[in-house]
Amino acid sequence: MVNIGNSIAKRRKFLKLTQPQLAELAGISLRSLKSIESGEGNPTLTQIMKILNILGMKLDIIVR
After folding, report:
1. Which residue from 4, 47, 52, 60 could staple onto 43, CB 3.0 to 4.6 Å apart?
2. In Å, how far from its chain's centre is CA 22?
3. CATH number of 46's domain
4. What's the pTM?
5. Which domain holds residue 19?
6. Closest-CA residue to 34 (of 46, 18, 50, 11)
7. Tens digit of pLDDT for each residue in 9-39?
């Protein structure tokens, strides 16, 4: 099973975005983003979709 948080963090770094930048673009708190990336958070589907869209990722990353 893919760790979505790890995939998000890798893509964010590839795009040279900081956590604060991505959190602001996604309209979520920095704390929420950090917990998502660490795999400890319980994000909503809406939050995940916003982040994936910003990063140019598709939802199928979750089910691979």
Report:
1. 47
2. 8
3. 1.10.260.40
4. 0.88
5. 4-62
6. 18
7. 999 999 999 999 999 999 999 999 999 999 9
